[in-house]
Design goal:
The structure is a homodimer. The first copy, chain A, is mainly alpha-helical. Chain A has 2 domains: 77 residues, Winged helix-like DNA-binding domain superfamily/Winged helix DNA-binding domain (Arc Repressor Mutant, subunit A, Orthogonal Bundle), CATH 1.10.10.10; 138 residues, GntR ligand-binding domain-like (Four Helix Bundle (Hemerythrin (Met), subunit A), Up-down Bundle), CATH 1.20.120.530. The radius of gyration of chain A is 20 Å and the shape is globular. Chain A is 73% helix and 3% strand. In chain A, α6 crosses α8 and α10 runs antiparallel to α11. A two-stranded antiparallel ribbon of chain A has the order 1-2. The structure holds a DNA duplex.
DNA sequence: CGCAAGTATTCTGCATACAGAATTTTGTTT
DNA sequence: AAACAAAATTCTGTATGCAGAATACTTGCG
C-alpha cells in the first residue's frame, strides 16, 4: 500500500509529537474503572488483590498503585487491613454530586457557546442525531453511551481543561447509577426532551439558555434516579 | 488527672465511632502534597523515589503508591521511565482552574447561606478577624493560610461533600501560585476588601451577593497572579 | 574542540518474599 | 444448638531483588 511504501519524513514525525507509550498503570486504571462503572465490581465489593491481579494478568504491585489512583478519584475506599472496597454512594452523595455536576455543566454550557467552532457544534448535533436513532430503536445501552458522550463533548467545547477533568471525575462516579436509574419510558422521554433543547440552545449559541437547561437537567436527573439508591 | 482515672465506658467508646488508624499511605500523600504546595518540591522537579523515600524514611513501594494518588489529583505527572514530575501549570491551566473555582465557590456561597448554622458563621467571622490581625501585622504567611482556611470553611458550610472534595483538589493546585502572586500591598489590600465583603454577605445570608463576590474574587485573583506564571 | 558512539551507572517498573493483621475454621464449653 | 476461644489460613502492607530503560560518563574520530 502507498502509505506503507512512502518513507516517513522527519517532519511528519515531529508534527505528530512524541510517540505516547501505553503504560500498564494506565491500562489497569482504565480497566478497573470500567469494571466499576459497568457494574462488574459492584458497590461494596471488597477487591481481592490476588484474584483481581490474576484476572487481569498483572502482579499485585502495579495493581495496588492503580487502585490508589482510583481511590483518589473517589471510586474506591481504603480501610487499613481490608484493602480497597468499591465505594457505595449514599443518596446524599449522589444528590451532592448532581448539584455540583449541574453547576459545572452550566458553566460549560456558557463557555461552549463562547468558544465552540461551527464544526464542533455540528459534531455534537451528529452525536445527538445518533442518540435519537438509538432512542427510536429503544436500544438503551448505546443510547446511554451517546448521551454521556454528548455531555462530555459539550464539556470539551468549553475549552477549559480543569473543568473537563473535574467533570470527568464526578461523571464517572455517577455513570452506573444513572444507567440503572434512568430506565423506563417516562424517564427516558424526559431526558430526551432535555437533550433536544440542549442541542438547539448550543446551535443558537444561547449561553444562558444552554446553561440553565444543563443545570436543570441534573436536578431532574436526581428525581429520576433517586429511587434506585 | 480526673480524665485519666475515670474508666472509659463502652458507650463512650461506641459513641465516638471506630478508632481511626493513621495509615502510612495517607501520611506520605499529605507530606508530599505539602512539600509541593509549600514549594519544597518545585514545579518541574523530577521526584527521585530513592532519595525522597530516604528523606521520608519509607521504602519505595508505599511512596510509589502515594505518588499515584497525587498524580490523580493533578499535582504530579508521570512519564514512562522518568517517574513522577511536579506538574508545571501554564497560564491557561491557572486561568481555567480559577474560572472553575470561582464557579464552585459561587455555588458554595449560595448553599452556605442556606445551610450554615449561626455558630458556624461565627467561626468564619473569627477566622476572618484573625486574618485581619495578621493583615494589620503584615504577617503574610499566617494571613495567607487563614485566607485559604476561610475559603475552605465556606465550602464546608455548603454541606455538599462532592463540592468540598472537588474544590480541595483545585485549590491545592493553586496554593503556591496564589501565595507567590498575591504579594504586594495593592494586591493584598484588594483581596482583603473582597474578604470583608464576603463575611458581611455570609452573616447577612445574602446568597446572591456572597455568590457574586466569591466568583468575582477568583477572577480578580487571576489579575493578581498572572504576572507570576 | 565538538560531536557521535560506546560503556558504565543509576533509576524505574514490576515481581516476589516476608511479617503482621484480618479472617476463617476448628474445638470446647455452656 | 449457640457462644466463645484457639488454631490455622489468608490477605494486606511493605521491603527487597531483578530486568530493562534512561541517564551520565568516557572514548574516539573528524
Amino acid at each position: 500500500m502507498a502509505s506503507e511504501a512512502a518513507p516517513l519524513l522527519i517532519d511528519e514525525i515531529d508534527s505528530r509529537g512524541p510517540i505516547v507509550r501505553p503504560t500498564l498503570h494506565d491500562a489497569i486504571v482504565a480497566r478497573v474503572r470500567d469494571m466499576i462503572i459497568e457494574g462488574e465490581l459492584a458497590p461494596g465489593t471488597r477487591l481481592h488483590e490476588g484474584n483481581l491481579g490474576k484476572m487481569l494478568g498483572v502482579s499485585r504491585t502495579p495493581l495496588r498503585e492503580a487502585l490508589k489512583f482510583l481511590v483518589s478519584e473517589g471510586l474506591l475506599e481504603l480501610s487499613p487491613g481490608r484493602g480497597a472496597v468499591v465505594r457505595q454512594f449514599t443518596a446524599k452523595d449522589v444528590h451532592d454530586s448532581l448539584i455540583v455536576l449541574g453547576n459545572l455543566e452550566g458553566l460549560a454550557g456558557r463557555l461552549a457557546c463562547e468558544h465552540a467552532t461551527e464544526s464542533e457544534i455540528r459534531e455534537v448535533r451528529q452525536l445527538h442525531d445518533r442518540m435519537m436513532d438509538m432512542y427510536e430503536k429503544r436500544d438503551r445501552l448505546p443510547y446511554f453511551k451517546l448521551n454521556q458522550n454528548i455531555h462530555s463533548a459539550i464539556l470539551r467545547l468549553s475549552k477549559n481543561e480543569a473543568l473537563v477533568s473535574v467533570h470527568n471525575v464526578l461523571q464517572a462516579r455517577l455513570k452506573r447509577i444513572r444507567y440503572i436509574g434512568n430506565e423506563g419510558p417516562e424517564k427516558w422521554a424526559g431526558a430526551v426532551a432535555d437533550h433536544v433543547e440542549m442541542v438547539e440552545a448550543l446551535e443558537a449559541r444561547d449561553a444562558e439558555r444552554l446553561s440553565t437547561i444543563l443545570n436543570a437537567h441534573m436536578l431532574k436527573t436526581w428525581e429520576r434516579v433517586r429511587h434506585a439508591i
